[in-house]
Amino acid sequence: MNYIIAEQFLELPRKIQKIFIDWWEIEEGDTIYSVDEDKDFTVARVDEEFRGEGDYWYYDYDADDLMLFSKSPDEGEYTEIPLFKLDQLIGFIKTKYKHIGVNNFIPFEKITKTIRTASDKGIYEWNVKIFKNMMQSEPDIEVLNEDLLQAFWEVAVIVAEEIGEMNDD
């Protein structure tokens, strides 16, 4: 899967969800999750001419129809949420941190296992480091994960929490 799953977004505190939703600029091709229908959809059309904020549509293949949706919460709950892809997570992180370092490696304990099995599936670790400036020797945020998308999701959540703390001050 090339985007986060709905449960990851929905388990976040409402305040952190709002930070992501407020940042999100909906584009055609984005993947959303309809909480009411318990399904993923692709944004099919974005019209900004009728209401200043924009009208957003997804195509429901089961109903063979375009469906209107809103970024605004309905009675305090979001009914459509973004399922972010890697490029969107990077874009969000870069709103606060301009320098991102990424590398992958095989942990030592997995090297001998790899040689025996001749399989490289799931042996690599992704190391994502985030810096405010390139003169730093230590990153502001560092995450290790076997899945690159999940590593960036972890970093994005940390950044959203930092933004939330800044907004509280």
UniProtKB/TrEMBL annotation:
Give the domain of life. Bacteria
- What is the protein name stated in its UniProt record? Uncharacterized protein
Task: Name its species.
Answer: Tissierella pigra
